[in-house]
Design brief:
Belongs to the EXORDIUM family. The chain has helices spanning 2-9, 17-24, 68-80, 91-98, 134-144, 185-188, 205-208, 239-257; strands at residues 13-14, 45-46, 56-63, 113-121, 129-130, 157-163, 168-169, 178-182, 193-198, 264-265, 297-298, 304-305, 307-308, 314-315, 320-322, 327-329. By secondary structure, the protein is of the alpha/beta class. It has one domain (13-329). It has a six-stranded mixed β-sheet with strand order 1-8-9-6-3-4, with helices on both faces. The longest helix has 19 residues, at 239-257. The protein binds 2-acetamido-2-deoxy-beta-D-glucopyranose (2 copies).
Length: 335
């Protein structure tokens, strides 16, 4: 087990490198992973482990220097996951696809996700650069802080570590935009699932805030952008935060369906699983994939979105694999 620890730390990533590479190499766009209509290629399997079936208590750790506007956008997205008050298609309608996954007792993933605590690590407790493992130390710091520690909740807690635009994280921008895993008892005291997502606004919007930015170092803009002139506008006005929303959605879907990395994934290699959101990276609507976001809505400012949230918010969230339809799916699907 120890032997695999390092390898395990390298899994469960959200990876846009395929996209970026295909642009930089100026190759055929159809090389990018897109399984929307090709279920034969996908061998998503259940490996008998738990899913997050109990109501989730979500705890945010804001690491670094955050502006309140960015925080409000992200918070409203998280509130939207369980809200029934937004009009269709909503964020909670999007989560319905995630809820189709069950464990071996037949329990579905929960639809109840409650933001239950926030911790401000504005002093960069573990520095301006975090290794993957150091993210667990950040959680440790938050649950042991005095006086306002986050609860350490091994029963139904889920910890979301969000790093501000200036914080560098191991593999951030090069290989990952976010990842999920579970804590080790010798660091945090218990095993709890967690996810990390970085704000890519200054470091790599073209990699991690697609499609609100594109990797312009690569030379060739994606085909749907009219030569790079029609980059999609971010619905909440912050490319980095709006880009984070989809990555947060991606990681929440995956940590819920594969919290201990032994439940739902495709591929033979448990150290490099392809999970339910990995299968649909870059797909936001019907016809998406291969550099096309697919059919999404535009608001009156020309910003792209595909789901509604609380307080009239709109978000653009990638699709996830639907195990019943056996294809990538979201509530804004045309069929
Ligand atoms: C639970 O999952 C099963 C199997 O995917 C599905 O048929 C059912 O509709 C799900 N229930 C809910 C509440 O999503
Ligand atoms: C890429 O975009 C960044 C930020 O928008 C800009 O500063 C830079 O000059 C651009 N590079 C190229 C080659 O267009």
């Amino acid at each position: 087990m120890l032997k695999h620890r390092c390898q395990f730390l390298c899994v469960c990533c959200f990876c846009f490198v395929t996209l970026a590479l295909s642009w930089s190499q100026n190759k055929q766009f159809d090389q990018v992973m897109n399984y929307e209509g090709s279920s034969d290629l996908v061998d998503l399997q259940y490996h008998m482990g738990p899913v997050l079936a109990s109501p989730i208590k979500l705890y945010i750790i804001w690491y670094g220097h955050w502006n309140p506007t960015q925080q409000a956008t992200i918070r409203d997205f998280l509130y939207s996951l369980s809200s029934s008050s937004s009009s269709y298609p909503s964020v909670s309608d999007w989560w319905r696809t995630v809820r189709l996954y069950t464990d071996q007792t037949g329990s579905n993933i929960t639809g109840n996700i409650v933001l239950s605590g926030e911790f401000y690590d504005s002093k960069y407790s573990h520095g301006g650069y975090l290794s993957r493992l150091a993210v667990q130390s950040v959680i440790k710091t938050a649950v042991t802080a005095y006086p306002r520690a986050l609860p350490l909740n091994p029963h139904n807690g889920l910890y979301l570590v969000l790093t501000s635009p200036d914080v560098r994280v191991q593999d951030f921008c090069r290989a990952v935009c976010g990842f999920h895993y579970f804590t080790f008892p010798n660091i945090v005291g218990v095993t709890v699932p967690y996810a990390w997502v970085g704000h890519s606004g200054t470091q790599c919007p073209g990699v991690c805030a697609y499609p609100f930015a594109w990797p312009n170092y690569s030379g060739k803009p994606p085909p749907s952008t009219n030569g790079g002139n029609n980059i999609m506008r971010a619905p909440n006005g912050d490319v980095g935060a709006d880009g984070m929303i989809s990555v947060i959605a991606h990681e929440l879907a995956e940590v819920s369906s594969n919290p201990l990395v032994n439940a739902w994934y495709a591929g033979d290699d448990p150290t490099a699983p392809t999970e339910i959101a990995d299968l649909c990276v870059g797909v936001y609507g019907t016809g998406g994939g291969g550099g096309y976001v697919g059919k999404v809505y535009k608001d009156s400012w020309g910003s792209g979105y595909n789901v509604n949230g609380v307080k009239g918010r709109r978000f653009l969230v990638q699709w996830v694999w639907n195990p019943v339809k056996k294809r990538c799916f979201g509530p804004n699907a045309a069929d």
